[in-house]
Amino acid sequence: MIVVDTNVVAYLLIGGEKTPVVRDVVSRDAEWAAPILWRSEFRNVVATYLRRGELALSDAVALVAEAEALLRGREFLVTSDSVLDLAADTSCSAYDCEFVALARQLGVPFVTSDRRLLDAFPSDAVSADDFASRA
User: Which domain holds residue 89?
Assistant: First the structure.
């Protein structure tokens, strides 16, 4: 199991420059987990594509359903104190710190493409590229 952030889910299902690498991440570990917050973040990403006319409403709804199925049963609550403890020591948002807090709670890697998170939490966060290329 790994914790993934919303961008990793978006790269897998919507596509983007990191999609090939994220597909490699899935092949290494398909058991993805995330804090409950990921749902709101993913809906916001999809809504942005919808507003720009890059997705039809029916496609947006289908994407959200696919993402929810991907993470079903592996969505977790994290404690406020664990999130705030991480946020107090970095310039990262509390939203971002939820993913790190969950990875620590579960004792698993946190896969992200967010450079700020990779720099702030080098012992917890691993880039999608690095995770995909692990032997």
Answer: 2-132
